[in-house]
Amino acid sequence: MGRVLAIANQKGGVGKTTTALNLGAALAERGRRVLLVDFDPQASLTLSLGYVPDDLSPTVYDVLAATIGEQSSPTLGDVVLETPAGVALAPSNIELSQGELDLFRATLGELVLREMLERVRREYDVVIVDCQPSLGLLTVNALAAADAVLIPLQADYLAMKGVDLLLRTVGQVQRKLNRGLRIEGVLLTMADYRTIHARDVVTNARSALNGAVRVFDTVVRVNVKFKEAPMTGQSVLAYAGDTPAAAAYRALAEELDGERK
Amino acid sequence: MGRVLAIANQKGGVGKTTTALNLGAALAERGRRVLLVDFDPQASLTLSLGYVPDDLSPTVYDVLAATIGEQSSPTLGDVVLETPAGVALAPSNIELSQGELDLFRATLGELVLREMLERVRREYDVVIVDCQPSLGLLTVNALAAADAVLIPLQADYLAMKGVDLLLRTVGQVQRKLNRGLRIEGVLLTMADYRTIHARDVVTNARSALNGAVRVFDTVVRVNVKFKEAPMTGQSVLAYAGDTPAAAAYRALAEELDGERK
Ligand SMILES: Nc1ncnc2c1ncn2[C@@H]1O[C@H](COP(=O)(O)OP(=O)(O)OP(=O)(O)O)[C@@H](O)[C@H]1O
Ligand SMILES: Nc1ncnc2c1ncn2[C@@H]1O[C@H](COP(=O)(O)OP(=O)(O)OP(=O)(O)O)[C@@H](O)[C@H]1O
Ligand SMILES: [Mg+2]
Ligand SMILES: [Mg+2]
Question: Could you say which DSSP state residue A182 is in?
Fold first, then answer.
């Protein structure tokens, strides 16, 4: 119980937030108790669930500041929202960018999220942490707190180039901060199968990574439903439940969860 | 001469690098002397022009460190590469992430890029600075050094939400660091006109922003040529010069440049 999964990739716009939300919703649909942690000051995850980040208080930042300052409140449990998507959400807003600076000056600043999650994680089967497009201290905290990291990989050339650096960073975290961290797998995202380019990248990614890193069988294909769902504050499972978009994340949840019964 | 244009948007994967490269190439095609500055440690711009970032030395980071340390060398001119795309490139690699930390501790750390550009900018008509997906010190340096900022805006709901924060940051930089900074305009990117969603977002963006901020007439539409060109180290003008992909950035260059003859 309380398995922590970080969704990380320093490249921008590769589907981290979309994966955090829809994988979380698919796991909840399977009866898991799911907590999503928005660990990005840009708060796309919080927005996607229909909230106005700047109107929320307290948020993940307040818990982070309290933890660094050794204050007992607020805890992560105190900021959690029960969302209509069937998942719990620990929301963020732009104040979390101050959080990265606070972590910088804190003692053992890489281990603060781990401490923040310690108590609340027991109340959930899965805790999914959505990261920002950077390998800075917020992301390192997520990797240091996680049991596993899932890497969304956009099916194009430039995005592939960044994977190496991410894997090296994961290796550093494993050696110095979190021996138990494993790579859950690489999820190919935003694949436009009308183009040979995407199909080539998917094929190349599997051969380049397989052996070293698991690549999920599920490939999430480009689908406008992913762009529309955030406007309604719903996961794609609720917004367009009988489309291939929803089916993709249900299949991913099956790959992740199916082995763990 | 020596006009500095920052390409900025803290949201990931919205087309900053693609715009920096292809707008630069289109301006060069019109006879302008163009310098591209890769100010992102992930070095997508450097990669897109066919280089292996980790093999390059010295890079933008070395100039930044020298400038902070008040050393006369290397200068930005010393690291510039003449690329086959007809543009000059000041390349980066992952060492530039150390640069953000160095700027943090430096005196007047927001004004270092401005100083780095001072001499070399006179040798060019246009200097285009490609930023990372963040509003941290590297991006602030770019905004503080720029005459104008061009904002690529992906034609979807989540990306639209980030514009407000970016405009507020630009306002802060204008008041505190760079009175002359203006907004060149917003460029709608990655629009998939087969979907009503993209067309709606384009329409909404124009009405939401127009008046406050110029929105270019040019809209860059989704086209797989943009994903393929980086694999060949060419701009899309060279790789697929007679396609709508190339035409879009030529039209943008016309909008930008045409007024300035
Ligand atoms: N399979 C898909 N098809 C179409 N659009 C998608 C798909 N997956 C995600 N998107 C859209 O692409 C944009 C980027 O996705 P998302 O925000 O999930 O990426 P991210 O990696 O979290 O970005 P960032 O690095 O900025 O945090 C969003 O507008 C999202 O709705
Ligand atoms: N009009 C387009 N059509 C199709 N693909 C595009 C288009 N513009 C850019 N791309 C591709 O989308 C991906 C993201 O674009 P790009 O790297 O330019 O965004 P970015 O804002 O610089 O990302 P980051 O925030 O990570 O720096 C790249 O693989 C690029 O080749
Ligand atoms: Mg995100
Ligand atoms: Mg970029």
Answer: E
